[in-house]
Structure formats: C-alpha cells, structure tokens
Amino acid sequence: MSLVLDLLSGLMLVSGAILVVISGVGLLRFPDFYSRIQAAGMTDTLCMILILGGLMLQADSLGVVAKLLFTLVFLFFTAPAASHALTKTARQCKLSPWRSDKEGDSSQP
Amino acid sequence: MNTAYALILPWLVKELDVLKYAVSLTGIMAAIWLLLSGQWTHAILVPLGGVSVALTVYLAYRMRILDREGLPIHLLIPILKYLPWLLMEVVKANLVVARHIVLGRKSLSPRICRLDTTQETDLGRVFLANSITLTPGTVTVYVREKEVWFYALTEELEQGVLSGEMDRRVTRLEGEP
C-alpha cells in the first residue's frame, strides 16, 4: 500500500515539476505581458495542485495534510485574484495585446 | 432578571439571522484552529484559541459581513459538485497552454472578447470570473452587471468559454438568489 502511495506521490511531484519547467520556459518564450500571465497561471493551478497533492500523500499526520489542504484552498482563491488584478491594470494602462501580424511594436506600453 | 431579558430579547430577534452565521463561523474557526495547532488539552493555548475565535467572530459581526454573501454555507454542496468539472477544465486548459508553449509564439492568436452572463448575485459573478481566470489561457479583465470581458490566448480557448458551459454551471451552482 505504501509503495502504491509512494509511486503515486512521486508521479505527481515529477509531473508537477515538469509542468513548472514548461511554464517557466513559456514565461520567457511568450511575446507579451498578457500571454506571460497565462504561462505563469499554469504554476498557480495544475502545478500547485500536483505538487501539494504529492506532498499530501507523503505526509505522516492529519495535521500536515490539513495544512497543505489549506494552502491549496487559499492559493486556489487568491491566485486568480492576483492574475485578474494584473490584467485589469495592464488593460487600464492601455496596453494592447500582442498580434502576430504586428510583430515588434506591441510590447511597448 | 426581567430587565436583562428585556435588553437581550429585542437584539436577539433583530439579529437572529446573523446569529445563525455567527454560530457556523465559530464552528468553522474552531475546527481550523484545532487542526492547525493540534493542541486539544493545553491549559493556556486552548483558552487563547477560544479568545481568538471569539474576537474573529465579533469583528466579522462588527463589519456586518455575517450574511449569505460573507459566509456562503448554502453553496457547500453545489461547490463540491462543481469542483470536479472545474478541475477537469483546469487540467485540459493547462495541457493546451503547455502545447502552445512548446509550439512557440507563432501558434498564438490573442484576443479580448465578451461573454454575456446570467448570474443574479455578485457572488455568482465572482465565481464565474475566478473560474475563467483559473483555467490557464483565459483571464478575466472586466466584470460588469451582465457581461464579462476576458482575454484568451487562442481561438480554441476563447470558444471554450464562449460556449457558455461554465456560465450555465455557475448559474446552476448559485441557485436561488
């Protein structure tokens, strides 16, 4: 039983880590502010769930599981608020989204 | 004795609705405190925890946030039904964004678009806006009375939101206003 749990948690941690790396690459590769927020959003959602879930399976007491669960729930509520605040501010500062036909002059505010 | 009753009774009748939420908030706070501290029998810490719970509930009462919106316990069961679907959407959208990261910027076609919404309450609108933002590839930009403006990375992700599936599910979750 513990072998199955270890395998499952290892799988979740590894896939979470791979997704974090992909999202970090996306942060560098994507063209403008809005699309970079999307790449960063990956770490806020699936990566966070996978890594915290993998750690939860490794925990040896209920208290640790509860604390990780609270972290997950709070991140689940606060991460979209942060993304939304950033996007709304960028939009109000008249930053227009990158367009593939106007390469070059779009990332300037 | 009678004067005490005469003082408390009108207040109790007036605040009966609030009292329900105060009791449930006390229960939730006590449960969280016990889980996080892990102390059940300590002679100093447990009373201090009780005091902090009471202070929190009193402050929430003073701030007048002990109501349907501030403590939506009636949504607990609908949320538990909605969450698995949302998680599936989050996973799917994550894979889509990961694919676009690998494919590079040529595969992107960003756009800002509008969705007509059908929620009745502010809480429902918040749920919808947060759900849109939680799925990577789409971010809510503006929330208005009957519409939501959101940014989408590609047409595929845009259509996923515009199909209205999420809007319908959040409206069903919200239930009776």
Layout of helices and strands:
The complex is a heterodimer of chains A (109) and B (177).
Chain A: H1 2-29, H2 33-58, H3 62-92
Helix pairs in contact in A: 1-2, 2-3
Chain B: H1 2-14, H2 16-37, H3 45-62, H4 76-103, E1 111-116, H5 122-134, E2 138-143, E3 147-152, H6 155-162, H7 165-174
Antiparallel strand pairs in B: 1-3, 2-3
Helix pairs in contact in B: 2-3, 4-7, 5-7
According to DSSP, the number of beta strands of chain A is 0
Q: What is the strand content of chain B?
A: 5-15%
User: Which structural class fits the helix and strand makeup of chain A?
Assistant: mainly alpha
Q: Describe the biggest sheet of chain B?
A: 3 strands, antiparallel
Order of helices and strands of chain B: HHHHEHEEHH
Helix content of chain B: 55-70%
Query: Low-confidence segments of chain A, ≥5 residues, pLDDT <50?
Result: none
What's the number of domains of chain A?
Answer: 1
Structural summary, described in words:
- The complex is a heterodimer of chains A (109) and B (177).
- Chain A has helices spanning 2-29, 33-58, 62-92.
- The mean pLDDT of chain A is 86.
- Chain A is elongated.
- Chain A has one domain.
- Chain A is mostly helical and 109 residues long.
- Chain B has two domains: 2-62, no CATH class; 77-174, no CATH class.
- With 177 residues, chain B is mainly alpha-helical.
- Chain B contains seven helices and three strands; from the N terminus they run ααααβαββαα.
- In chain B, helix 4 (76-103) packs antiparallel against helix 7 (165-174).
- The chains are: A mainly alpha (109), B mainly alpha (177).
- Chains A and B meet through helix 1, helix 2 and helix 3 of A and helix 2, helix 4, helix 5 and strand 2 of B.
